[in-house]
Amino acid sequence: MWLEAVDLVLQRLKESGLDFSRVKGLSGAGMQHGTVFWSKDAEALLEGLNPEKTLVEQLEAGSKGERRGAFSHPYSPNWQDASTQKECDLFDAELGSPEILAEVTGSKAHHRFSGPQILRFHTKYPSHYAETSRISLVSSFLASLFLGRIAPIDMADVCGMNLWDIRAGTWKSELLRLAAGKAGIEDLEAKLGHVPKDGGASYGSISSYHVQRYGFPADCSVVPFTGDNPATILALPLRASDAMVSLGTSTTFLMSTSQYRPDPAYHFMNHPTTPGLYMFMLCYKNGGLAREQVRDQLSASSSTSDDSWDTFNKTALSTPPLAQSNSDTQDNNNKMKLGLFFPKPEI
Predict the structure, then answer these.
(1) Would you tell me how many other CB atoms lie within 10 Å of the CB of residue 231?
(2) Per residue, what are the HEC states of 194-230?
(3) How many CB atoms lie within 10 A of CB 220?
(4) In angstroms, rounded to a whole number, what is the distance separating the alpha carbons of residues 218 and 238?
(5) CB of 113 within 8 A of CB of 33?
């Protein structure tokens, strides 16, 4: 699906007349905590892409097994996966407590983080894990498609894995040992690769595939791709104590700070471009999806059967705050009303 999306957006840009030759640099963002497992054929396939064919045609495994493809496993666990409670318990206990894990990695163990995901993956699919040459996050997976080789994980997104020692700037050996199991620390560290400390340094030039297929200049630079939340922190010039609320599919509260004060109740990550700065984050699954569900329920009960936001907005704006139509707090019909909606288990 992700390969199809990249093929589609580039083709649409081409058809709309974009002059790719003017593009001097390329970066991007991918959903945080998605984990991609590359096969042992991945590097050769990326380096040898035929500009006459799409990415899907060349990187996806053949339906009848005639081609192994670039991936050792056809699916990528992502931010909505909640199947790793057992693995999270092991991660929380490995260093002594969730508090210590948060102090080291910036977060306690979370279902969607790559460390618990990798532990579950190699336990459930040992043969697929053995066939895995590299492990990417969605951001570094996307960068790899443009670079023509496996791109490093960036300095911010790596903090969403429960594997990275933020203060030391290295992989945490005890956590690698837990995630890797019998395969060993060195094997997993090789799969994860080196993490550059400079969030703005170029990875190199774009692959010849994109030069020949779309007309990118050969010297177009591929700059580190990062996670969607670290990318959001770059969207506005935040000052000290400024906060940002992102009302996306998930809802997130973001701050940039020079103080490292992790806690199991929230997340700390490296700032995506500036060493010495950190990103503080609260993240909730029941964000945009919950609001859309309320919107749809309102539309279904209205006479207009309007599935847009118009009915939602009209209802919200025509209702007094907390449904208090007057200032008489003794009025039993004037009680405050507040709704909290959790259609999905919260993360």
Answers:
(1) 19
(2) CCCCCCCCCCEECCHHHHHHHCCCCCCEECCCEEHHH
(3) 19
(4) 35
(5) yes
pLDDT > 70? residue 329: no
Reported in sequence order, the residue ranges of 108-263 that DSSP labels E, i.e. its strands, are 132-137, 164-165, 170-171, 204-205, 221-222, 226-227, 243-247, 251-257
In tens, the pLDDT along 259-307 reads: 999 999 999 999 999 888 999 999 888 888 899 998 988 888 876 656 6
Q: How far apart are CA 37 and CA 316, in angstroms?
A: 44
Burial 146-158 (b: 16+ CB within 10 A, else e): bbbebbbbbbbbb
- Phi, psi for residue 281 in degrees, rounded to 5: -145, 135
* Alpha carbons within 13 A on the beta-carbon side of 115: 32
The first and second tokens of residue 323, run together, are: 């449904």
What is the residue type of 57? E
Global pTM? Answer: 0.87
Bridge partners, 26 (sequence order): 222
Q: How far apart, in Å, are the Cα atoms of 274 and each of 26, 154, 281, 288, 321? A: 19, 12, 17, 30, 41
Residue with tokens 């790899």: 144
Over the stretch 152-188, which tens digit does the pLDDT of each residue have?
A: 999 999 999 999 999 999 999 999 999 998 889 999 9
How far is the C-alpha of 186 from the C-alpha of 167, rounded, in Å? 21
Q: Name residue, tokens 């318990």.
A: 89
Region of 96 (left: φ > 0; alpha: ψ -120 to 50; beta: rest) is left
Q: Kindly tell me the sign of the dihedral angle through the C-alpha atoms of 181, 118, 91, 226.
A: positive
> Token pair of 316, please?
């919200």
